[in-house]
Amino acid sequence: MFVSLILKGGVIMIPIILGSIIALAIILERFWALWKIRLNIPRFAEGVFHDIEKGQTQKAMERCARVRHPIGNLFRLGIVNHHLRRNEVESLMEREGDEQIQYLERYMSALIIIVGVEPMMGFLGTIVGLIQAFMTWEQMGTNITVNALAAGIYQAMITTAAGLSVAIPGFILYHLIMGKIKHHAQEMTYYGNELLDLLSQTQEGGVR
């Protein structure tokens, strides 16, 4: 049944199916990437801050190295460069944070392009199917039958349904993933500023 519908959808179904496969691969890869870096950031930050307050900079850096979350690299960069002026450390951390967020957003631009193109491909299939149906009607004239029109009408309906079936869940999942990435970015910004404040306060106390 499923294969039959695909065949009736015509050649336009090829890019629609390819787009759905690529979109699914991106979604699964990004969910896996976000799952791998899961971390209780407030608890992690509290531990790092505690180490710094006790002057155990090396221990804090080791704690940062053990986590997969981008905030580990962010904190470690700030601690390593704590001897610099605050605005210099802040600039370094902002650059690192931007790079980490760009990594988390990898392939997402491709996903949103696919989500936008899929329904348009479906509508293109609709137009092609209707053209085919009307051409058949023109050729057969008064002898036209429903069976003769069916192929074009099938293509029109199937391609539209296929394009929307890919685009709608893709759109929802795109925003779910981007929302999660935005949450990571906000936490990194907040606790990064907390780290900067702490390093500024302890710099004169001989943080090593």
The helicity comes to over 70%
Helix run count: 8
Helix-strand string? HHHHHHHH
Main β-sheet, in a few words?
none
Tell me the Rg in angstroms. 27 Å
Which parts are unreliable, with pLDDT below 50 for 5 consecutive residues or more? none
How many distinct domains? 1
**Arithmetic mean pLDDT:** 87
Distance between the termini: 69 Å
Shape: rod-shaped
Short description:
This protein has 208 residues and is mainly alpha-helical. It has 8 helices and no strands.
Structure write-up:
By secondary structure, the protein is mainly alpha-helical. The chain has one domain (2-202). The protein has helices at residues 2-8, 13-36, 41-53, 57-65, 70-80, 86-104, 108-140, 146-202. α3 runs parallel beside α8 (146-202) and α5 runs parallel beside α8. The longest helix has 57 residues, at 146-202. It is rod-shaped, with a radius of gyration of 27 Å.
